[in-house]
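[agent] plan:
  1. take the single chain provided in the ticket
  2. run structure prediction with default settings
  3. attach structure tokens to the ticket
  4. add a short note for the reviewer (M.T.)
[agent] executing step 1
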Amino acid sequence: SAGAFQDPPTATPEPTPEPVPLAERLVFGAPYIHRSGVVQTARPLGDEWQVSEYLSNGYSGQIPTVFMINNLDLVVVHHYLRSGIAFETLDTLSTEFLTTAYFAAEWQEYDTWAETARTVTGEAVITDFALAVNDLDFLARDVSSVVESWLVVTRVVVPADSPELLDLLMDEVLARLVVYPQMLALPLGWPIHADQDLGVMLEMPPAMTLGLDVPGQYAMYWLMTGDEAGDHPYVELHALESEVADVRDWIAVMYPDAAIIDAAASDAAAIDGNDLVVYTYVDQTGVERCVLGVLVSGADGPLAVVTATAMAAEVPNWLDESTLPPLYSDVKLVITQGIQVLVPAAE
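[agent] step 2 finished; step 3 output follows
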């Protein structure tokens, strides 16, 4: 019969569910830290977010930049820092730097732009815009402030029909934005190691290579000097396995036969009040090592110990600059200037 070979009935189309608005699904993960170590910002979760970063060269120096672009929801979050900004007040920053010519260059990727509002607060210059590109309309907000002669810029772009999203996203991003001025003391091109479990970040000379990384417990970097067969100095980040009040306590537990040969106070923010301590010990191979160690402390107490180690035959005393071979001074800078306590992620 005809029914024996009847084709399946024509299916009915299923309506596509309305997409969940970004404001209702906006969730942030662990902070995103620019490779310069200068900027820590919010990292939205979701495959729709694409993150890119740069360290470009500007007329006043290198410019750390982070873009977070969401093409699904047509949203952009943009951070950048620019050095050499020396204005006495935010009012003068607003009138003399954040000019029409400046913003014309900043919005050059858009077909049209217009400033719609500007406010100077005690902390920042806040400027709103109406933008258009490819027959699409957008709202944008630029929040510019100055930290130690660095211009710190955060921008958010959203579709023109989402003013509430502009407010929400900018508030959430600014609440999670952290600038680490301490990291500006060393070259911006130096790479970082950020252990968010321990809450510690290290800035390294480019010649250092990662040897081992166990987040929350341990990391080690070698200084590669060109002699692959040689004995290379190295930097280690150690989690604390017991309560200590001073790096000497840690040394006594980890290296009970070590001899402390020198010490000096430090004024670096992450280790302020904690002495830099030099000690020597003989390792399992019979080689005498000289170590520079320091206890890293946060607002709630000690977090970790950071050490730099070399053969005592090459470095008799890390605190005696005249004894350090070439490149070893850079390794010492990791301990004396390259340590930063991370700000925990905002809830």
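[agent] step 4 note for reviewer: The domain at 22-179 is CATH 3.40.1000.10 (Protein Transport Mog1p; Chain A).
[agent] ticket updated
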